[in-house]
């Protein structure tokens, strides 16, 4: 009952896109996920790409990726300074690439919380560019941008939101 439409705080007509989607991206609420990789407890739980697959299939448009130095120069995703398991950053990006636009063509934001060394940040950059290709926004979409592009202009695009926490 708690998750049923009979108990929803949202108007039923708002379950589908009902706005015109031509205003700057910052004019909209964005369905976001925190600690997306965790399937259970945030101190001892399992990390899995299944968390990303699940939220993307439900239409989430912003997912969090906590990146840490991994073995052999391969960055990992985990909840730092805890006993949660680790998954390879490359595997997370691969899953995101596969499921990013299954539920919605509107832009996906990757919220990267980066705790990696410069070397592993370089590896992350290579992985992002190689796996996401033309989906990844790497510059301005037009020469005269004075505001953020609209969701319509960013359809089938992936944006990065970066937070660096040193290493």
From TrEMBL:
One of its GO terms (molecular function) is phosphatidylinositol-4,5-bisphosphate phospholipase C activity. Residues 19-163 form the Phosphatidylinositol-specific phospholipase C X domain. Its EC number is 3.1.4.11. Pfam families: PI-PLC-X (PF00388). SUPFAM superfamilies: PLC-like phosphodiesterases. GO terms for biological process: lipid catabolic process; phosphatidylinositol-mediated signaling; release of sequestered calcium ion into cytosol. It catalyses: a 1,2-diacyl-sn-glycero-3-phospho-(1D-myo-inositol-4,5-bisphosphate) + H2O = 1D-myo-inositol 1,4,5-trisphosphate + a 1,2-diacyl-sn-glycerol + H(+). It comes from the Eukaryota. It is an enzyme of class 3 (hydrolase). SMART domains: PLCXc. Keywords: Hydrolase, Lipid degradation, Lipid metabolism, Transducer. This is Phosphoinositide phospholipase C.
């Amino acid at each position: 009952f708690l998750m049923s439409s009979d108990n929803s705080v949202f108007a039923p007509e708002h379950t589908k896109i009902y706005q015109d989607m031509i205003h700057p991206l910052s004019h909209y609420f964005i369905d976001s996920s925190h600690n997306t990789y965790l399937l259970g407890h945030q101190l001892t739980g399992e990390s899995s790409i299944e968390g990303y697959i699940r939220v993307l299939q439900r239409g989430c448009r912003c997912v969090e990726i906590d990146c840490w130095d991994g073995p052999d120069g391969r960055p990992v995703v985990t909840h730092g300074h805890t006993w949660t398991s680790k998954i390879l950053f490359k595997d997370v990006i691969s899953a995101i690439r596969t499921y990013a636009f299954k539920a919605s063509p509107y832009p996906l934001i990757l919220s990267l919380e980066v705790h990696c060394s410069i070397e592993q940040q370089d590896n992350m950059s290579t992985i992002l560019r190689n796996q996401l290709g033309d989906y990844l926004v790497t510059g301005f979409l037009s020469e005269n941008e004075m505001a953020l592009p609209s969701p319509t202009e960013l359809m089938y695009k992936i944006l990065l939101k970066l937070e660096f926490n040193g290493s």
